[in-house]
């Protein structure tokens, strides 16, 4: 049976050192005869222990698969400013649509917004004298339906303009409009000015695929812009979807790399992420089309929000910025200076005092204290591009001068040969089949112990064996991570990729967390990471595996302190087809082991290709058993 297990042992203050336990997994539906044996020897003496970096395991968040827009960012309206269809009018207002017909309503975009950076607004002309009951108007289905829940309140903000006074009806309704979950009348004064409308809607029913409707019964013209609907119960009131954030918190991430990935580069530079366009009042953000992953973002989840998210997770922010290079075009090093200045401004935004030019913008957004940005990545996967090295050095030197403490991450792999440029860390990305990744647990054994450290900023099993997140994939990843723990003298950070997928837009497969408008579950790769959540900052100890089956096994052992107690955790991965009877012995502990405080945690299933799903989110199970030790 393939599985991953760990033993966590409470160590109080007496002496004694030997421990024996076998991992007969009680979580399994059927008990299997062990066909192999293995002995694990852990040397837990302090002489041979080494501290793992505090930052070893963290997260990589990319705006891919609607991870942010329609994902952790709780905004329910999609294309809230009508900008997604582009600047040429009339434009496509998708996913907005119309309630009524050609005879009763005419809706068109124009360039009359009060917001200069996102000039498109929606002009709605009601044509009917005797409008149908319920009126005519527009609706927005959100991101594959809005999750509207009974008793919850939702904050509507929108900008409207109408030459004559009118009463609008704003409602939350089922996708066919028949079931009304909430409804308010919004009087609009007749003026030539735009007015901001703020209204609370309280749902008196639940529908997971609802829509927002704005209707009228009165002949006339009303303009709309920047229509937002936010649930009132976002995480810390910061706009994040609470259930998704709690899944992240459960992994205790030590860093957050953001916002990409290829999202940072763009297919073309004109579509790359621009931090400056993603800060300040949300109404004034232009939004942009992410041309690598093919969707529009209103950029409510912007640079500031990513910094806030890092703080909320207790994770060190790692800002990946565009270095003047996209997938298809590049800024030459001779012309890179304004891009360098732009990045220095972004660092002032994060770290500058509330009195500095950009720090004051951050303070005005509600965060006078600086955000402690200590790491930046100069581009994503751009090593070897024509202007990478030249541009890299411009960014590197400018940042080094202004922020000597910031650690800079190069895109060039320094694991097999030294880099030809200065760097604190280098990116290492691996997506491969499970067997290859399992065998890559020794990859960093051979790497030089001097020079920049590795940041394994993207790793995952994909394609062959991966399914939509299989147990087998997670086992190979776990084995790979035990190798990173052992090599954490030169591997400083590691993160799985991608973190999230909205089930309605699976551009990249597999992913750690799958969600839709109202549900979420972890794939085995998510649960696998939970085995490593105590590793950052812990002590790693030598471990040896004696078995004729050792080619299919991987293991590591750590100890750490928590509220006065010491803990020992031994992780074992069985990647082979046979069950294994395990004997674990620990030497070198200063104290005895408290068997009563010990337990075993197992991640397994009846078939290695098993996956979790919305209907069976715990098929590949993480289960804990207490007092297993004899
Ligand atoms: C939600 O609305 C759809 C479309 O009207 C309907 O089929 C579904 O039954 C509704 N769900 C609930 C929980 O009322
Ligand atoms: C419209 O706004 C301008 C500028 O704020 C103000 O001077 C003017 O009085 C407003 N007009 C109406 C009709 O409210
Ligand atoms: C910021 O400006 C205020 C008012 O001008 C001043 O009192 C304060 O000392 C300044 N703070 C810093 C950190 O410069
Ligand atoms: C497993 O042991 C650890 C350490 O004593 C404890 O924190 C954890 O709650 C235990 N788990 C269960 C399910 O008992």
Automatic annotation (TrEMBL):
<dbReference type="GO" id="GO:0000272">
    <property type="term" value="P:polysaccharide catabolic process"/>
</dbReference>
<feature type="signal peptide">
    <location>
        <begin position="1"/>
        <end position="29"/>
    </location>
</feature>
<protein>
    <recommendedName>
        <fullName>non-reducing end alpha-L-arabinofuranosidase</fullName>
        <ecNumber>3.2.1.55</ecNumber>
    </recommendedName>
</protein>
<keyword id="KW-0964">Secreted</keyword>
<keyword id="KW-0732">Signal</keyword>
<dbReference type="InterPro" id="IPR017853">
    <property type="entry name" value="GH"/>
</dbReference>
<dbReference type="InterPro" id="IPR055235">
    <property type="entry name" value="ASD1_cat"/>
</dbReference>
<dbReference type="InterPro" id="IPR008979">
    <property type="entry name" value="Galactose-bd-like_sf"/>
</dbReference>
<dbReference type="InterPro" id="IPR010720">
    <property type="entry name" value="Alpha-L-AF_C"/>
</dbReference>
<keyword id="KW-0272">Extracellular matrix</keyword>
<keyword id="KW-0378">Hydrolase</keyword>
<dbReference type="Pfam" id="PF06964">
    <property type="entry name" value="Alpha-L-AF_C"/>
</dbReference>
<dbReference type="InterPro" id="IPR013780">
    <property type="entry name" value="Glyco_hydro_b"/>
</dbReference>
<feature type="domain" description="Alpha-L-arabinofuranosidase C-terminal">
    <location>
        <begin position="457"/>
        <end position="627"/>
    </location>
</feature>
<comment type="similarity">
    <text>Belongs to the glycosyl hydrolase 51 family.</text>
</comment>
<dbReference type="Pfam" id="PF22848">
    <property type="entry name" value="ASD1_dom"/>
</dbReference>
<dbReference type="GO" id="GO:0046556">
    <property type="term" value="F:alpha-L-arabinofuranosidase activity"/>
</dbReference>
<dbReference type="InterPro" id="IPR051563">
    <property type="entry name" value="Glycosyl_Hydrolase_51"/>
</dbReference>
<dbReference type="GO" id="GO:0046373">
    <property type="term" value="P:L-arabinose metabolic process"/>
</dbReference>
<keyword id="KW-0325">Glycoprotein</keyword>
């Amino acid at each position: 049976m393939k599985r991953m297990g760990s033993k966590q042992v409470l160590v109080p203050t007496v002496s004694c050192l030997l421990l024996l336990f076998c991992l007969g997994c009680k979580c399994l539906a059927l008990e299997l005869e062990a066909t192999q044996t293995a002995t694990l020897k852990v040397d837990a003496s302090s002489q041979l222990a080494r501290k793992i970096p505090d930052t070893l395991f963290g997260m990589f968040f990319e705006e891919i698969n609607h991870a942010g827009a329609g994902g952790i960012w709780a905004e329910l309206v999609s294309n809230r400013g009508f900008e997604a269809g582009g600047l040429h009018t009339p434009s496509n207002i998708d996913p907005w649509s119309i309630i009524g017909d050609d005879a009763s309503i005419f809706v068109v975009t124009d360039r009359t917004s009060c917001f200069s950076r996102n000039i498109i607004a929606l002009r709605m002309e009601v044509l009917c004298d005797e409008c149908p009951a319920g009126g005519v108007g527009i609706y927005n289905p959100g991101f594959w339906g809005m999750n509207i829940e009974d008793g919850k309140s939702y904050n509507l903000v929108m900008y409207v303009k109408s030459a004559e006074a009118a009463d609008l009806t704003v409602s939350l309704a089922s996708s066919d409009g028949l079931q009304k979950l909430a409804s308010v009348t919004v009087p609009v004064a007749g003026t030539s000015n735009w007015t901001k409308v703020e209204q609370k809607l309280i749902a008196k029913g639940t529908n997971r695929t609802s829509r927002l409707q704005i209707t009228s019964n009165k002949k006339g013209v009303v303009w709309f812009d920047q229509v937002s609907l936010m649930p009132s119960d976002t995480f810390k009131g910061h706009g994040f979807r609470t259930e998704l954030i709690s899944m992240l918190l459960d992994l205790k991430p030590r860093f957050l790399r953001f916002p990409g990935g290829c999202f940072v580069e763009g297919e073309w530079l004109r579509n790359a992420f621009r931090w400056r366009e993603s800060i300040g009042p949300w109404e004034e953000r232009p939004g942009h089309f992410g041309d690598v992953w093919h969707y529009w973002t209103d950029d409510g989840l912007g640079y500031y929000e990513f910094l806030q998210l890092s703080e909320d997770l207790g994770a060190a922010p790692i800002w990946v910025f565009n270095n003047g290079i996209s997938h298809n075009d590049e800024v030459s090093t001779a012309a890179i200076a304004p891009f360098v200045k732009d990045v220095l401004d972004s660092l002032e935004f994060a770290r500058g005092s509330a009195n500095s030019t950009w720090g004051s913008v951050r303070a005005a957004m509600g965060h006078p204290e600086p955000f402690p940005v200590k790491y930046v990545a100069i581009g994503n996967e751009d090593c070897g591009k024509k202007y990478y090295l030249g541009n890299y050095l411009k960014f590197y030197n400018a940042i080094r001068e202004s922020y000597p403490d910031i650690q800079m991450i190069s895109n060039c792999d320094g694991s097999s040969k030294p880099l030809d440029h200065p760097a604190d860390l280098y990116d290492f990305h691996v997506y491969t089949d499970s067997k290859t990744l399992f065998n890559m647990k020794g990859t960093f054994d051979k790497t030089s112990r001097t020079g920049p450290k590795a940041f394994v900023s993207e790793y995952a099993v994909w394609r062959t064996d991966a399914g939509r997140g299989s147990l087998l994939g997670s086992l190979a990843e776990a084995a790979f991570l035990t190798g990173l723990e052992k090599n954490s003298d030169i591997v400083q950070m590691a993160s799985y990729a991608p973190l999230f997928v909205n089930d309605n837009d699976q551009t990249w497969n597999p992913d750690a967390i799958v969600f839709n408008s109202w549900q979420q579950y972890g794939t085995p790769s998510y649960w696998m990471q939970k085995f490593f959540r105590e590793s950052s900052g812990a002590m790693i100890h030598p471990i040896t595996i004696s078995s004729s089956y050792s080619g299919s096994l991987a293991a590591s052992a750590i100890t750490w302190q928590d509220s006065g107690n010491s803990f020992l955790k031994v992780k074992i991965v069985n990647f082979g087809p046979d069950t294994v009877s395990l004997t674990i012995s620990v030497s070198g502990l200063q104290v005895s082991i408290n068997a009563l405080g010990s337990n075993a945690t197992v991640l397994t299933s009846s078939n290695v290709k098993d996956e979790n799903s919305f209907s069976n989110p715990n098929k590949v199970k993480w289960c804990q058993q207490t007092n297993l030790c004899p």
